[in-house]
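re: ur question from earlier - yeah i can do the single chain one, its not a big deal. heres the input i used so u can compare w yours
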Amino acid sequence: MSVSKKFIQQLILFDIFVALSVTCDVVFSSGVGDGNIKCLQTELEALLSFKRELLDVRGRLSSWGNEGFNQDCCTWRGVQCDNQTSYVIRLDLRGPSGLNASVATAPLIGKISPALQELKQLKYLDLSYNRISGGIPDFLGSLSKLEYLNLSCVGDDFTTVPKLGDLSSLNTLDLSYNDFLSVNNLEWISRLYQLRYLAIRYVNNLNSSVYTWLFKLSNLTHLDLSGNTLYGQIPDAFWSMKSLKHLDLSRNALGGGFPRCLGNSSNLKLLLLSSNNLDGQLPEIMNNLSCVSHSLEYLNLEENHIGGSLTDIVAKFASLRELRLGRNKLNESIPGAVGKLPSLVLLDLSWNKITGSVPDLFLLSSLRELYLSHNQLTGVTESIGRLSKLEKLYLDFNQLEGTIAEAHLSKLLKLRELDLSYNTQLHIRVSSDWIPPFQLDLIRFTHCKLGPQFPNWLRNQNNISELEFSASGISGNVPSWFWEQLPGLTFLNLSYNDIGGNVPDLSKKMTDLLCIDLATNKFTGPVPRFPTSVITVDLSNNMFSGTISFICDNFDYLGYLDLSDNRLSGELPHCWTLRSIVHLNLGTNNFFGEIPDSIGSLQTMGMLHLQNNHLTGELPQSLANCKKLRVINVQSNNLSGEIPEWIGSNISDIIIVILKSNRFSGSIPSTICQLKELQILDLSENKISGIIPKCINNLTAMTEEESTMHQIKSWYFQVDDQGEVKINASYDETAVLMWKGRQFEYSSILGMVKSIDLSSNNMVGEIPVEITSLVGLHGLNLSSNNLTGSIPLRIGEMRALNFLDLSINDLTGEIPASLSQLSHLGVLNLSYNNLSGRIPLGEHSLTFNNRSYIGNHGLCGYPLTETCSLEELPRDLMLSDEDEFITPEFYISMGISFISAFLGVSALMLNRRWTYGLLRY
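and the output i got, formated as tokens:
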């Protein structure tokens, strides 16, 4: 049958239409042209299988649809597909890392499903900071297209290490923070010939010298081995890695100096060797790096043991942008050659022993950050004011003298941070109408001579976030404009000045305020309100008055509150909701009434100071909930009742307990002996009765001669809604102790003091011999009690004792001879007891006068005027039973013999001829 031409044409058109329809279907399904990518079914199923093996606590994979939900895996979170082929090429499931992690995220937990190997075209895989169990599977090595692999911090319970040496396309590999790695199971990396970037940071098991297989990676441009325990010298072979641009060996234990390089073929731009054990002289090290002088841009050698001085060879490093040499042993002055680095942006020479003046650095036209803190610099020239691009200038903790005037600062147009603190002889003198050319973010003039007027030029500063003028000689009232001028202030320290006036409500004026320290001034009026985000408030030693009702505001992050030494009054509030408080000091005020039970809700509290008030009642039982208490000081109140047993039974980490000068009664509970960390126990001037517990030798910290700490610190920090730490701060705890009859305030060495004071109570019984086990004790005061019995014979074993007071008791017997062995004893008081016998003789005991022994009518010998009879000789000089033949007549005959011998020798001395003859004989 013939077919018409028209029909054929229609058939052809239909075929074309069908073809076009199929083509369009393919186009639409692949997403080409309109951006709607639809992933392949096999890869979708592989991803769902991968998801089923994981525990997703925070729903990070909630967009990964199951049957009936979103079926386009290319739109899922962390998944990226190729625009042309629809294959999955990128899988980014990085978990939360460190303190910067958002609180809304959580790591994925579980195994890596074998289904992942279905992603044949995968180029990028990031599983870091998750909790992978079962190890890293070897099948990842079959992902031949993989170019980027990040497995950092994925687990620490693996027994095997993956074999991924077949990833021939891999150019980036990160295995950091994995303790399952070791030197012996990483050689497969040397087969990854395309590798450009390698990071193996902070792996505790890599305690070795630098591994030789690394040097086979000839194409490596970035190598990061920081934070391990690598030791030995830095290998010369690094210079053979011609492509290497970035080398980070910081935070290891590498020693020696840097190897001398040959030729000029290296392309190294960044070299980080901070926090190692490098020694040698800086000029030699810089000379050894001369082959990279044309390429090196970032050099960090801080925190080593490098000595010597800066050298003129530094000028050859013309490309250098950052030079960090802080925390070393550099000395001498800064050479002028440093000023010939035109590309230098950052220079850090802090924490050295550099002397002289800050030289002319005006040729450093690119310099933005200059750190010269903690040196021995004595002067600074006006030329520093010509660094027009300078943003940060730190000259704190030096010995700068003279005056900083407007000329030093006149051209620092971009200056944002200025720290001149702790230069006690440095005057800062600018006119009251001076308008600075810069807007500062940070300004610190602590312990400089800034006053007496409050600096009026601050009126032109609008961006300050941190201001510290502590101990800077300012007097008078804070001008009213100040509290309005700096709404963005986060840190304010005006302590240790002579500043007065009222402080307004800051809760709406300084809404970003985190720390405020106005201690030791003359501020008056009520305690101001603060923004609820505040972390540190120190208003101590002022003249604030009224109540502290502001405490009922919901402070979410307040960690340190010190309102001591003011004129505050009223009852303590019942609304304690300080959920983050660590240090609370309300001492030396006029508070009265009972300590409210609600204070026990402060479960983060570590330090409680309520001393020198008019508080009554008992210590509330609710304080037993404050299990983190380390210091409790309620001395000089009117508290009563028995010493609670929860001190020791519920709270075991207490270091300091001061209940002095109250009306506590009853006996000392045996639970006190459970305080293994206790170093200071002061129960003096109360009505405590009973005996000294024999279990006192269980106070472990007092049985150790060496102290493990100097200060006792309060640590606290704030984490914001994004998981970032806004402040991580510490304060030294202080305590006023009775020492050698006088009151002393201890702070910086409080952690070294170990003392027990039970004086002025009604205690009875003997001094337990167990107390002599406290060989680390520095002070022991048991005076003014009703103690009986003798002084323990082994008291000489308490070798650290510096202060011993056993006066005004009913002690009997002799003073132990071992007492004379206490070579550190500075104060001894045994007066007004019933002691008898000879006072022990010893080189150190001769330093005490008669006041140490008066009131003991049976004592004799130096330093008392009463002489001792023969029967009162010390027992250690008396004779044993085996020496009965030595009688009093023996001593008489021995005396006669001594006199005869003396006369004979005298005669010889008078007759030279007899003497000469005797000597010849």
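The domain at 37-193 is CATH 3.80.10.10 (Leucine-rich repeat, LRR (right-handed beta-alpha superhelix)). not sure if urs matches, ping me
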